[in-house]
Design a protein that fits this description.
Elements lengths: L6 H40 L3 H34 L10 H25 L3 H8 L1 H15 L4
Length: about 150
Amino acid sequence: MAMEDSEQPASASVGEKDAGAFARTERRIAWLTLALGAAAAIIVAALRHRLWAEGLAIGTVLAWLNFRWLKRGLDALVAVATAQEGAAKPRIPFGTWFRLMFRYGLIAICVYVIFEVLKVPLASMVVGLCALGAATITASVYEILRPVE
């Protein structure tokens, strides 16, 4: 049974709608990470806990960078997988794997150096890193309450 020409664009536009919705959600998570972390840091700074506010801000920026690097790495994996579609054993370049895994090491090194040099409490940076989780939950609840038709 052949598909009519009028049916093909509809399925293509559904995929494009999904891709657009996913991109909007990714952007929402990125700015919510920074907004929620900044709000927490400002509140803690207003309570006169400067080192904790700095740690929250640093952790938030590291969480945002982690999200950006994760997105870039996954986009690269999708591009490689799409390019090798139909291959018996697709090969993922070492650089792609390295970038995906290196981000964890880089964040750990940054947290250690900041902890040792600036004497910022480690727990405050860890809580700042949780801004990404809070942003993801917030964006998910938004998507549930305002679904795309």
